[in-house]
Automatic annotation (TrEMBL):
The protein, known as: Acyl-CoA thioesterase
Pfam families assigned to the protein according to its UniProt record, in alphabetical order: 4HBT_2
Gene Ontology molecular function terms on file: fatty acyl-CoA hydrolase activity
Classification lineage: Bacteria, Bacillati, Actinomycetota, Actinomycetes, Propionibacteriales
InterPro entries named in the record: 4-hydroxybenzoyl-CoA_TE, HotDog_dom_sf
Matches recorded under Gene3D superfamilies: Hotdog Thioesterase (3.10.129.10)
Organism listed in the record: Nocardioides albidus
Coiled coil: none
Length: 300
């Protein structure tokens, strides 16, 4: 059985391309996840208890089609695709049903969650009651691949600092999982802003995210000092490039900071006029690598 949640859109969810911003999809998934977990508890006849606390360990988000603002909600199906000793995985599909019965899929995503003891912040195993609550929504047994995150070489990376705001915190007093996507987005945009000058001789080419994977290593908490975010371009292809980033607990460019989160994002070159991916003009790829300079670690 799959859980269905109808998620309303907000005008503020739209980006400069008139699409729902990539970060907002993760916000939608969070709403759907909460609704699913509530339904799991209700189906099992259990109340929310003190051990019922979960943190996100990893998000894998595949963007399939742009979603534009409309007054009708968008549909989200969620189900349990894996149950392990100390974690479980939810799969999601954000879609719109078509008149012929088919689906226009906007996003497919996977979220790995881990239970922990709220009082101590320590991880724990899933108990039998939780397993029973998840069981009605389980579709188990499918083979799965996991994203590979690499250490970002900080001597080649572009440094951008990110500042935590009080409103970024969740009920556990950690930075909410959605906000990490915002931090990585801010750092990514700041890191590649130099491209405008280096690509002035080419027609304007925008970019959209095709895939965004984030791994949560340790909680980010509120503090006066900003955190460091390091980014590199690990691949430049014919129609896309890959940006890999790390947020560390260092500040001011300290190379010794411990990794708190990792991100791997595939950006596809995009024509705003046709709303399609494009193969840029000859020489664009080389000019892009030149403009990025040492930030490119491979694929030049």
């Amino acid at each position: 059985m799959r859980h269905r949640y109808d998620c309303p859109l907000r005008w503020g969810d739209i980006d400069q391309l008139n699409h729902v911003n990539n970060v907002k999809y993760v916000d939608y998934l969070q709403e759907a996840r909460g609704a699913l977990l509530h339904a799991c508890r209700a189906a099992a006849g259990v109340e929310h208890h003190h051990n019922d606390a979960y943190v996100v360990r990893r998000h894998e988000v595949s963007f399939r089609a742009p979603l534009h603002y409309r007054f009708q909600p968008v549909s989200i199906e969620s189900w349990v695709s894996e149950i392990r000793a100390a974690s479980f995985t939810l799969d999601h599909e954000i879609f719109e049903e078509q008149p012929d019965g088919s689906r226009l899929v906007y996003v497919r995503a996977r979220t790995v969650l881990a239970p922990f003891v709220l009082e101590t912040g320590m991880p724990r195993r899933l108990d039998e009651q939780e397993r029973n609550a998840l069981a009605p929504y389980a579709e188990l047994g499918a083979d799965r691949s996991r994203p590979v995150f690499v250490d970002v070489p900080r001597d080649r990376a572009k440094l951008q600092q990110v500042q935590v705001r009080f409103s970024d915190l969740d009920i556990y007093r950690h930075v909410n999982n959605v906000k990490y996507f915002e931090f990585f987005q801010e750092a990514r945009i700041a890191s590649i802003r130099r491209l405008q000058r280096g690509l002035q001789g080419f027609p304007r080419v925008a970019s959209v995210i095709a895939q965004a994977d984030v791994e949560y290593v340790a909680p980010i908490v509120l503090r006066p000092q900003p955190y460091d975010c390091w980014s590199v371009v690990s691949r430049i292809g014919n129609k896309s490039m890959v940006v890999e980033s790390e947020i560390t607990d260092g500040t001011g460019g300290s190379a010794e900071g411990a990794v708190l989160a990792r991100s791997k994002v595939v950006l596809v070159f995009f024509d705003p006029e046709t709303q399609r991916s494009v193969d840029p003009a000859p020489g664009f790829r080389e000019a892009l690598a030149e403009a990025l300079g040492d930030m490119v670690t491979a694929g030049r």
